[in-house]
Specification:
Length: 390
């Protein structure tokens, strides 16, 4: 049994932030019911596919919807609303990521659902939050990861010094928001266990990225200067950077005095350790020192650099995804999971669950669902009656 095996979650979300949040809960054992609009989650037809677009969903949907059950409901119809409310009666959590006000227009807002189930935890993931927890003029606007990264400050501090603001590769505006929302849901579950009270949980993408950029916030407060891009280096630590090797790149984090001395010894440059013995001296002379380190790494392969440093200094090569697939650590930690791909003749690999627990180990619960695959088992006699009426 998973740690959350006594929780039922109604998941009205689509695309990435909401599905990733409920995926975390599903991996932890929750029964996650994906309530999909007519036609299903917008991201079902998104590539890549194994063989052809005839498959019921692509890799995007598979990755963040594994282990869930699916029912297709039209919340704009009286029948769909009735079916949904029947599910709400036995649910612990509802998660949705519509624009603010959408569920109210369906007649299914927080207050309505709370009347049907007073212990319900209602969780919203939006670009700019919900008026219930703090109204702003941005609420109601659509938002995606790119918008959150731009507004929250992460793009301004990402990229080369002489380059444009740069989006972080993964959708952190979605993923970080999703992880925070899962924490909020679990905190609300704990509160309900003590008090019997449900509540409204609200996590905004913009807010989450501001929180993620905590370093930029305190830097601006302390110095009055807004931080900007400086490549792979760190604003207050050195060396903490990426360096070119003969066959790729390595990262070296030797900002502590002990690591700095070990790096200078490995480079056969003990004089550098003596001349720049403390962090402030290294920061003042970071450009010249960076070139000293870069000249040493350029003449060596990534393996030669890591062989010389790993174990005494935080250092590793920069890997691509093919390297990740070949890394024994990743396999040993179950971070690559095989699941069935409907419509294809082979399994596919998705990212595993990084949360590890000894008594209730989380695990992805199989492939993502087909659209409306679990109608009969979720709605029972209601589904049979509907079929007979139709």
């Amino acid at each position: 049994m998973g740690a959350l095996s006594d929780l039922r979650v109604l998941d009205l979300t689509q695309v990435l932030a909401g599905p990733y949040c409920t995926m975390l809960l599903a991996d932890l054992g929750a029964d996650v019911v994906k309530v999909e609009r007519p036609g299903g989650d917008l991201i079902r037809p998104n590539p890549p596919f194994v063989a052809s677009a005839d498959e019921p969903y692509g890799g995007y949907f598979q990755s963040v919807n594994r282990g869930k059950r699916s029912v297709e409901l039209d919340l704009g119809s009286e029948r769909g609303r009735e079916d949904f409310l029947s599910l709400v009666e036995t649910a612990d959590v509802v998660v949705e990521n519509y624009r603010a006000g959408t569920m109210e227009r369906f007649g299914l807002g927080y207050e309505t659902l709370r009347e049907r189930n007073p212990e319900l935890i209602y969780s919203a993931i939006r670009g700019f939050g919900d008026p219930l927890t703090g109204a702003t003029e941005r609420q109601g606007q659509p938002s995606f990861d790119l918008i959150a990264q731009a507004l929250g400050g992460v793009m301004e501090i990402t990229g080369p010094e002489d380059g444009p603001p740069t989006k972080v590769g993964p959708g952190i505006g979605d993923l970080f928001t999703a992880a925070l929302n899962a924490v909020g849901v679990l905190a609300a579950v704990h509160h309900r266990e003590r008090t019997g009270e449900g509540q409204f949980v609200d996590t905004a993408m913009y807010d989450s990225i501001v929180s993620l950029c905590e370093r930029a916030v305190y830097q601006y407060s302390y110095t009055g200067e807004p931080p900007t891009r400086q490549g792979n280096s760190h604003p207050t630590l050195f060396p903490y950077d990426a360096f070119e090797a003969d066959d790729g790149h390595v990262v070296i984090a030797a900002f502590g005095d002990n690591h700095w001395r070990a790096l200078c010894e490995a480079m056969d440059r003990p004089g550098l350790a003596a001349d720049y013995p403390d962090a402030s001296a290294r920061l003042r002379n970071r450009e010249a020192l960076r070139e000293e380190i870069a000249a040493w790494t350029r003449d060596r392969t990534c393996e030669e650099v890591t062989d010389a440093l790993v174990g005494s200094i935080p250092c590793e090569r920069v890997q691509d995804t093919a390297d990740v697939f070949e890394d024994p650590h990743v396999r040993a930690r179950d971070m690559l999971v095989e699941v069935e791909q409907p419509g294809a003749d082979r399994c596919v690999t998705i990212a595993g669950q990084p949360i590890k627990m000894t008594a209730t180990p989380p695990e992805p619960g199989g492939r993502a669902p087909l659209l409306d695959e679990h109608r009969a088992e979720l709605l029972g006699e209601r589904a049979e009656e509907r079929a007979a009426d139709d």
